[in-house]
Design goal:
By secondary structure, this protein is an alpha+beta fold. Bound molecules: flavin-adenine dinucleotide.
Length: 507
């Protein structure tokens, strides 16, 4: 078969063995098991991997389950802890703190969204914090964890959870799973590529050793360098650094000395923010910052003086540019992971985007004849998700009330129109973005809007017709149910050590 004779995909070549490459290999080898499609992954020990990326979103669980991976095995192999949300410290005003939980606030009352009721009551003088209506927020603050239940009447059915894990161990684990399912791993550095002059499709990669690896479909998981999508195909990059100006990070692990809460922390600093991701065996830390506002020396000093325990390595510097390829799928190359784009890790969205890229690719898994249509569909889906996440991240920055030059500059920049419209709808009428598809649902927007001190001035008029006494009693019941459920929840680390054993099978 030649490239001008379209047919099925017989060989997939994955370039890169970081989180993106091995997630792709694991998913493809699972879904395509029993088919005649061969999968080969090329990685270079000399180049190495980014090796950060330890906080995830709840969607990772469905992905692991779909790959046949047992949750307890994953927790044991990656030193994982559970995650109920992300805590943002000092993001509105210094001294503020809020958690963006993976779960709902309160319950609808007579068909009215809970937050509409809460906003009206707040305007009327009720000081009760929104967080009193969120089980995952209060459980996270108390360092407690248990898995959700299916009892619809209980706060324990109102949340989801994710993991914080060691990224290198996760990639190594997936590599073992993938190779066990027949993926061929090749160590070597790709130095050249071959293009069919007639079709423009890539036909093969050449390694430094001289070996030529042919394929029908190429998945570029080569990290920021985008060895195929950018260097071979020259795909355009849409740069968002004018909206998200952080371009650098230092990352360092440290010994854990504080309680291991089931949440990631992001603390605003003078020209960026610092993450804390507690795992079973250590805590991951990093400072994300704008190099136009902060020197490397100052950034390292801020990071190292704000560690909870002794550093376990030297801080490692990373540079990045925020944005995405205009086409993440171009001809027969699909860019997954950092090669396709990067949004800073404020809401742990990179691994989610890898996962979305893989599942969308599998849903559209092409033959060569339909590849152009599949690529168009793929690019539409991925662009929409990238753009929505971008707006959500920008919200954290623009709605700040801090005083340093970095924070003032960012407050004064022009917002994307799509974000201005969302904030205006919330302030005037309490309306929240509500997508059919997408990662951040109304409770996520609510958490961040309220957390950043953006409060509705208007609400659903039906709230004013509710009986105040009955409403007060109902709200008190909800708060009480959350409080009692948290009291009965075990300590997070005790749960991991003793009772966190799910029953499903798998790898
Ligand atoms: P890489 O890890 O860079 O892997 C690239 C692979 O390509 C390597 O195996 C390399 O050897 C190979 N390669 C490259 N060129 C060649 C060549 N010529 N020949 C052969 N092989 C080649 N994500 C989250 O979801 N949560 C987080 O908390 C989070 N935190 C982050 C913090 C920072 C500061 C940064 C920068 C990123 C963070 N991310 C996070 C993103 C996350 O790290 C990445 O999405 C993830 O690691 C995937 O990376 P990758 O596999 O695309 O690239």
């Amino acid at each position: 078969m030649t490239r001008t004779d379209p047919g099925p995909i017989n060989k997939v070549v994955i370039l890169g063995g970081g989180t993106a490459g091995w997630m792709t290999a694991a998913a493809l080898s699972h879904r395509l098991a029993g088919s005649r499609v061969l999968i080969e992954l090329v990685e270079s020990d000399e180049i190495g991997i980014v090796g950060v990326g330890e906080a995830t979103l709840p969607h990772i669980r469905a992905f692991n389950t779909a790959m046949g991976i047992n949750e307890q095995t994953l927790i044991d192999r990656t030193q994982a802890t559970f995650k109920l949300g992300i805590q943002f410290v000092d993001w509105g005003r210094p001294g503020d703190a809020y958690i963006h939980p993976f779960g709902a606030y309160g319950e609808r009352i007579e068909g009215i969204d809970f937050h509409q009721v809460w906003a009206a009551r707040r305007a009327g003088g009720d000081p009760t914090p929104l967080d009193d209506y969120s089980y995952p927020v209060r459980a996270a603050e108390a360092c407690r964890f248990q898995r959700p239940t299916s009892d619809a009447g209980s706060p324990l059915s109102t949340f989801s959870y994710a993991f914080q894990f060691d990224a290198s161990l996760y990639a190594a684990f997936l590599r073992q799973v993938s190779c066990g399912r027949g993926v061929v791993r090749t160590e070597g550095k790709m130095v050249d590529h071959h293009v069919d002059a007639q079709t423009g499709l890539i036909t093969a990669l050449t390694l430094e050793s001289g070996r030529r690896i042919e394929g029908d479909l190429f998945v570029d998981c080569s990290g920021f360098r985008g060895r195929l999508i950018a260097q071979a195909l020259d795909a355009d990059f849409e740069d968002w650094s004018h909206w998200l100006p952080c371009d650098s990070a230092f990352a360092v692990p440290c010994r854990t000395t504080a309680p291991v809460g089931p949440y990631t922390r992001a603390t605003a600093r003078q020209a960026g923010w610092q993450w804390r991701i507690p795992l079973q065996h250590r805590t991951g830390n990093g400072l994300v910052f704008s190099s136009a506002h902060l020197s490397d020396d100052a950034a390292q000093r801020i990071l190292m003086t704000n560690l909870e325990g002794p550093a376990l390595a030297e801080p490692r510097r990373l540079s990045f540019r925020t944005g995405r390829r205009r086409k993440l799928w171009d001809r027969n190359v699909v860019a997954i992971g950092l090669s396709g784009g990067f949004l800073e890790p404020l809401e742990s969205t990179s691994i989610y985007l890898i996962q979305l890229g893989i599942t969308t690719l599998l849903d559209l898994f092409p033959d060569q004849a339909g590849m152009a249509d599949d690529a168009r569909e793929y690019n539409t889906i991925m662009a929409l998700e990238f753009d929505r996440i971008r707006d959500f991240l920008i919200l954290h920055y623009v709605a700040n009330q801090r005083d340093e030059p970095f924070w003032r500059d960012i407050r004064e920049m022009a917002w994307p129109d799509s974000l201005s419209a969302k904030v205006e709808a919330f302030v005037s009428r309490g309306l929240l973005p509500d997508y059919d598809v997408g990662v951040f649902h109304p409770p996520s927007w609510l958490a961040v809007l309220i957390g950043q001190n953006i409060v509705p001035q208007g609400w659903d008029p039906r709230v004013d017709r509710l009986d105040p006494a009955r409403l007060s009693a109902r709200l008190a019941e909800m708060r009480d149910a959350v409080r009692r459920a948290v009291e009965r929840t075990p300590d997070h680390m005790s749960f991991i050590r003793a009772v966190g054993r799910p029953t499903q099978g798998g790898a």
